[in-house]
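Neurochondrin-like protein (Chloropicon roscoffensis), 239 aa
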Amino acid sequence: ADASCDVASRALEALGKLADLLGPCSLKVVDLAFEDAEVVAALAACASGPSGSEDPPHRPKSKTMAHCRALEVLSTVAGSSVLAFAEVLRRTREAVDVLQGLDREPILAVHFVFKMTLALGGLERDASTEGMEEFRVELPDLCRALLRLLPRVGMDAEDDFRTASECLGALENCCALRGDWIGKEVVEEVVMGLVEFSLSPGGAATEDHGVRVALVVSRVHRVHRDADLVDRVIRRTLE
């Protein structure tokens, strides 16, 4: 079983590298990725969540990690070109509602969103395709869903800590997009939400999370140069 899993993992990795090589011609690789049994299984796991046949607490960790690797390959393929990114989005929507997936299966869904927002960072200057515009419209709702999820996954258990870190990373990636991608109001909502999370008395945020939030605020300031927002963050922190 371990040997076959290793072979499948290498095959998926090869798909991701092939997409990088083909660039704008990578739509065929998107087709191949979505035909892969590991990718199909990972998307099904995101869609089913606790109500499916495999409750996350009872799923072997090795299978969860295999699902994460498969979703990571999708994001690698998506990052090869704007056309590939838009097609991965379209095909993913056909299989799973990502916003619902954040509630049902946060470990997998957050990992996928984090990797997709990383891939988006290299493509934001060329966002003229219809699928990319649709994603841009969805960004505020995605950010709010990630913010709502943070207190739930902010505990200091291994899986929760990693998921919370990727949740913070996805929010950072979104807020670091250009101003024509994400509005000032949404950036402020996210940053102040992160500050509230880091200051929460319930203990959901660890010290490491607090440091990460400070780094997010610093990066947002470098990208957007919003001194007023930084002043509000400082005032709220000192209250």
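The first helix runs from residue 2 to 22. Residues 33 and 74 are 7 Å apart (CA to CA). ok done for today
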